[in-house]
Amino acid sequence: MRQVKRLFYMVLLNVIISAITIIVVLRVWQRNHPLAAEDTPAVMVITSTSADTSPISNPVAIDTESPTDTGIHVDGTVQATPTVKMLVYQVKEGDSLGALAIQFNLSLEDLLIANDLSDPDSIYVGQLIYIPTAPLPKTTPTNIPTTAVATHTQRPSATPTFGPTNTITPTPVGMEPQVVIATVIGVGDLDIEHVVFERTGLGDLSLAGWRLEDGAGKEYTFPRLTLYKGGTINLYTRTGQDSVVDLFWGLNSSIWRTGKTVSLYDAQNNLRATYTVP
Q1: Residues forming a β-bridge with 149
Q2: Euclidean distance between CA atoms 115 and 123, whole angstroms
Q3: Nearby residues of 200 by Cβ (< 8 Å), 6 or more positions away
């Protein structure tokens, strides 16, 4: 009986010694081989305060974070990101992205990026768009995050609905509003000399910031006005009082001659129409 007890204590002692040895070895190995934190990909975190997306006539300021160096640490904390304020603006008749960029002292590129647009003429009356209050941060392709997490407020729908039967839809492709130079009347006669512009396509078109050139150094900049579907407007060479259908250049002599080319540029310096005087 005493031999059995002695054998039991010897086995128990061996188990305890083995357990202690294993623990010591694991501690030494862990000290010499620390766990390396895996690189965590950057994650864009866009946070916006709630904004009223009902029809509005004035811009509404919201806070939208635009990250430049955002990431999640191994311990789960998120790096702080700089904040870029944006305005929510509802497009009205006569608005264009070019005119809005001038009005809010922005680049057209930033305005397009903020609204995921590629065509500056693609906005329509009633659309809700974002207007940055400062230049957007520049990023390189290697810093572009692969995941975006949005909270609180989502971007307005491309076709907002203000009632069960009142839905605004974009202008069909190929029917965008355009301006053509129809003719030049009274060539050489200052009293009656004027250029005639006509609207084609659907919708309304703002001419704010557009300009007319004669190819010889003279140019006329259009005031803030809207040319509606099927509308016509006259630009007289002489001095006069502007009205909804007649504009006056304010020159003291006629400028149009046979063979001269009339060129029309929009607010982004894109050539929109030409006409050669016959």
Answers
A1: 45
A2: 10
A3: 177, 178, 179, 180
Task: Report the C-alpha gap between 115 and 132 in whole angstroms.
Answer: 10
The pLDDT tens digits of the residues spanning 62-112 come to: 444 444 444 444 444 444 445 667 888 888 888 888 888 888 888 888 888
C-alpha 128/C-alpha 92 separation (Å) is 10
CA distance 122 to 117: 8
Q: Which two tokens stand for residue 125?
A: 């009356």
**Residue 42, both tokens:** 């950057």
Question: Rounded CA gap, 74 and 103, in Å?
Answer: 45
Distance CA 254, CA 191 (A): 9
For the chain, the farthest-separated pair of C-alpha atoms sits apart, in whole angstroms, at 137
Cα–Cα distance, 100 to 121 (Å, whole number): 12
Taken as a whole, the chain contains a residue count of 278
Residue 134 and residue 65 in contact, taking contact as beta carbons nearer than 8 Å? no
The H-assigned helical ranges of 2-141 are 2-32, 97-103, 108-114
Q: Distance between CA atoms of 92 and 121, rounded to whole angstroms?
A: 14
Query: pTM here?
Result: 0.40
> Residue 231 to residues 93, 131, 182, 202, 247: CA-CA distances in angstroms?
14, 30, 12, 11, 14
List, in order of start, the domains of the chain with CATH numbers. 44-151 (3.10.350.10), 178-276 (2.60.40.1260)
